[in-house]
Design a protein that fits this description.
This protein has 82 residues and is mainly alpha-helical. 54% of the residues lie in helices and 0% in strands.
Length: 82
């Protein structure tokens, strides 16, 4: 996760205002609609966490959800929507 997260941060840090995070997320393979959602969450001060879990994806997702994390599909109604 560190490598992907570091690349997102590096890309976003240099050009966050110009849409660098959106481009980085799309570059990682997220559909543009999802990338826009996560970019809007980031812009309002939320933290993005990425995990490269391969066969342990469900376990990683469960841990993040237990600790209050969410994604575009499980977000509370009060989060930003595109």
């Amino acid at each position: 996760a560190g490598g992907i997260f570091a690349s997102i941060l590096a890309s976003a840090a240099g050009t966050a205002v110009a849409g660098g995070l959106l481009g980085a997320l799309v570059g990682l393979g997220l559909p543009e609609e999802h990338a826009k959602y996560y970019e809007s969450e980031f812009k309002i001060g939320r933290t993005l966490v990425t995990v490269k879990a391969a066969e342990k994806y469900r376990e990683a997702e469960d841990i993040l959800h237990r600790l209050g994390g969410y994604n575009i599909h499980t977000a509370p109604a009060t989060t930003a929507r595109v």
